[in-house]
Structure formats: C-alpha cells, structure tokens
Amino acid sequence: MSGTPDPVITEELRPFFEAAAERRFVLMRCQKCGAWYWPYTGCRHHDNDPYLGNMEWEPASGRGKVFTFTVAHVAFNRAFPAPSIYAVIELAEGPLMPSNIIGCRPEDVHVGLPVVVEFVENSNGLVLPKFKPA
Amino acid sequence: MKICVVGLGVTDVGRLPGRSLLMLESEAARLAIADAGLRPSDIDGAIQMTSDFGGGVQPRHDDAFPRVLGLPVKLYMENVGRGGEYAAKAFLVARQLLELGICKYVVCSGARDDWSRSRRYKDGGRQGPLYQYKEGNWGALMGDNAPSFHGLLATRHMHLYGTTSRQLGHIAVAQREWACRNPRAAMYGRPITIEDHQNSPIVVWPYHLLDICQESDGGTAFVVTTEERAKDMKNAPVYISGIGFGEQLQSLLEKKEHYSQLAIETARDAAFSQAGIELADVDVAQFYDCFTAEVVLQIEGYGWCKVGEGGPFVETPGTLGPNGRIKLNTGGGLLSSTISEI
After folding, report:
1. Which residues does chain A have within 8 Å of residue B152's beta carbon, measured at their own beta carbons?
2. pLDDT value of residue B133
3. Are B230 and B4 in contact (CB under 8 A)?
4. A70–B141: do the CB atoms touch at under 8 Å?
C-alpha cells in the first residue's frame, strides 16, 4: 500500500483536474467583474448570484510567489519522501493555492520566492499543479 | 439562565492500547455522572465530542456511549464540533436543551485514540506521530498533515514579525514547567530548557519535536445542568459565564491575515461581554496548544500584547510559567500533558 491519498474530486472541481491533465492551469473567474478565485466559489462582489452562474474556469498565468511554507523532515507517508516542501502560493491573479514546491532545495525556499506551475502526475495517475522556482 | 458543570470525568490518559473510542467516551461519561453524584437514570441528554478523523471513523449514532451506559436520553447528538472546540459547542447545545426544558442533566463526552491510531497506521505506509487521511482533500494530495498545516502559520508569523523558533521554545518550556507540577501529565518529572527545545529534531520546519503536542489516548466528559438544579448537588458548580466564537479556517484561502491571526476578536468580545469581564480580570487561561505558535497567536488575539509582538513578549522573564504573571495552560496543556482534551 503506497499510502497515497485517493483524491476526492467534487463535480465542481472536475474541470480543474481535467485541465491539469492537459497541463493547462485554470482558475475560476467572475464573468461580471473579472475577479479570480480558487477553488470554485460564488463571487464576493455580487450578492445572491445563482449557483456558480457567472463563474467560469479560465486559463491563468500559473505564476506566483511563496506566501508561506513548511519543510517536512519526516516522511509521515511513503508517498511523500522527506524532505518535501509544502507551501501556500500567492498566485499572480490573487488567489492563494496550497501546493508543493519542487526542484528547490529546502534551504533555498523563502517567503516571496517567485514560482511557476509544473504539472506532476502522482501514483494515482492524477495530475497535480506543483510549483518550481521561476 | 446560567448553566454550570456539576461533574467531571477524565479517564486514564496516555497509551491505552485495546480501548476503543466508544469505550473511552463511555468510561469518561460514567466518571462524570458519578462525580456529579447522579445516577445514569438521571441523564436525559448526551452530546459526543469526538473528532471524525477521516481515517475510517464513522459517526456512530446507533451505537454510542448512552447505549453502553444505559442512559435514558431523549437526545444524543454526535460530533457536535471539530477538534479543540467541542466543549464550547457542547455548552451551546446543552444550554439550549436545558433552557427549553427538554433536558435536566446533559452529559458531554469525547475521546481520542491518537497514540493507538498512529500505531495502527504504521502498517499502511503511514507512520506516527501522525496518520494521514486515506482519502484526501486538496492538502492531503500534497502531503499536508497537522504539523505542516500549522507550521504555515508559524512561518508566516516569523516572516511578518521576525518571530524566532527560540521564542516559540519559551511556550514549550513554560508549559513543561506546569506539567512538572501535574502528576497526571505525560511529561511530569521531565523538565526541559530552551536548549533542549532548540536541539530537538526538526520534524516539519519550522517546528522542532518540542513544538508539537503529545499524542495520547483518553476520554474527557462533564455533566451540565442549570444553576437552579446545581444548588442541591454534591459539587460546587462551575458556571459557564460566556461563550464566543471566531472562524479562521473558513476564510483561510481568502483572508491572508488569517495565516497569522486566529480570528479571536469576535470570540473574545462575545465571551467577555456575556461574562462582564475584561482581560485584566482573567486569572487563568487554557488555550488550545496543538503547536507552540498557536499559543503566541492567542496571546496576541486576546490582547496581552499587540499583534506581531508575541515573540518578544513570551520570552520576557516573568511572563509565562508557574512564576509568570499569565497563568496559561496550567496542567501542561496539549504540549506537555495530554491531547485527550476536547
């Protein structure tokens, strides 16, 4: 048993993973005011919009900066060998997205580090957006 | 109407292999009912305060501690909250049941089996001191776990305000001093120094081993009733003078400040105004201390110091510990006593 968590993908998040499988990075965007979100949500700027009525997944830059991070020195799960970096990325469009930083030595990661998306297929066959130094 | 606690039950805590969550809940409830001077037949409401950890624990509304103890309850409410906030939510529900006259005596019981559980998960490629969810939301897919998630807050505070690991160590040391006065604490008789904290292995940077709470099995329960009924009972009642809430997690992806502040203001304002007190009136505080930085964030949130100044504040001599002016987590807390707390 690998210990890799099986993903729980809601219907609303499925388009995001389908895009990721094609190596496309998308975020949810309000079609009224252009505000960006991740993950799916109603837009904060318009009260009482119907169920995701004005929201669409749109291509985004895949760029951002490290907002905060931790470095696991213990492999609690064999699927995630240590050391591994878990971070929150402040995307260029504004939303925050938790992910792994890859291709970066633990001693080199810092808050504010510019990063860019890199799609990685995990052992479940699921393609996930991770980030590497830009 | 005032409500109060009239009985407390705490099981053995620590390493209790072979005891299920259900039996730990039942034992804690039994102790609380006995401590209140009541009989099981007096209990007409029951509230469960046990986390659904996601690793296969199912809600057990058809097989719960009222069945084990034979409690003639009119209502059993399972999983009334989430880790660390059960007691506050249980008081809310209990208060409503008592105020509406639905129940006379409500027993609230919760248990954890973290130590036993992490041993079981070792065989699945997942190892202690933490287990991983088998199914994952977003974070779990990236290897997120308790210290990595909570560490995000510590790192952010360090970045914004220059807080240091050494300063966080003062939380660990102060609580260990308290634990050394509590014979039931896991770390009783094992004092530590700042150097011990700094020399302990880094588990998930920025957290050293001694920034991380205990891992234990155990159950905790209490009986709640009205002020009126409590007058004739065995124990002096402990009044619940105020309850308040703030929500940090729900807004974490949108409110960036919630990576370095815990949304305490609304909780504090509600609880303090109901009780008619100010911070200066507080003699003792018991904070949720899963990791050291959370304690610093709570000290800031309640206003003992300004936001961002918690690091220098906690390392100032005479602030924390049994000889300090702030009496905080006086049993040793989750960090040095036990994580059976609810």
Report:
1. 68-70, 86-88
2. 47
3. yes
4. no
B115 pLDDT band (50/70/90 cuts)? confident
Of B140, B131, B89, nearest to B112 by C-alpha is B131
Separation in Å, CA of B327 to nearest CA in chain A? 31
Please confirm whether the linkage preceding A39 is cis (ω < 30° from 0).
Answer: yes
Measured between CB atoms, which of B125, B142, B147 is closest to A78?
Answer: B125
Nearest to B284 by CA among B241, B332, B326: B326
Q: Which residues contact A91 (CB under 8 A, 6 or more apart)?
A: A27, A36, A38, A60, A61, A63, A64, A97
| pLDDT tens per residue across span A29-41 | 999 999 999 988 8
Q: Could you say which of B126, B135, B138 has the minimum Cβ distance to residue A77?
A: B126
At B220, is the secondary structure helix, strand, or coil? strand
Query: What's the rounded Cα separation, in Å, for the pair B8 and B35?
Result: 6
Q: What pLDDT is stored for residue B11 in this prediction?
A: 93
Is the CB of residue A40 less than 8 Å from the CB of residue A49?
no
pLDDT tens by residue, A80-124: 889 999 999 999 999 999 999 999 999 999 999 999 999 999 877
* CB-CB contact of B332 with B179 (8 Å): yes
Record: contact B142-A2, CB cut-off 8 A:
no
> Are residues B78 and B48 in contact, defined by beta-carbon separation less than 8 angstroms?
yes
| ipTM exceeds 0.85 | yes
Instruction: Give the pLDDT confidence score for residue B59 in this predicted structure.
Output: 53
Q: What is B237-285 written as a DSSP string?
A: PEE---------GGGTTT-GGGGT---HHHHHHHHHHHHT--GGG--EE
β-pairing, B217-226 with B207-208? unpaired
Contacts of A87 in chain B (CB under 8 A): 152
* Count of beta carbons in the 10 Å neighbourhood of residue A130: 20
Contact B206 A128 (CB under 8 A): no
pLDDT category at B263 given cuts 50, 70, 90 is very high
- The share of chain B scoring above pLDDT 90, in percent, equals 73
Asked if the Cβ–Cβ distance from B159 to A111 is below 8 Å, we say yes
Per-residue pLDDT at A12: 87
Q: Check A128 against B141: CB less than 8 A apart.
A: yes
User: Mean pLDDT score of chain B, rounded to an integer?
Assistant: 90
Q: What is the pLDDT of residue B155?
A: 98
Query: With an 8 Å Cβ cutoff, is A99 touching chain B?
Result: yes
Strand pairing report for A26-30 and A36-37: antiparallel
| Whole-number Å distance between alpha carbons of B113 and B178 | 24
A27 closest CA partner among A67, A56, A70: A56
Q: How far is the C-alpha of A78 from the C-alpha of B125, rounded, in Å?
A: 6
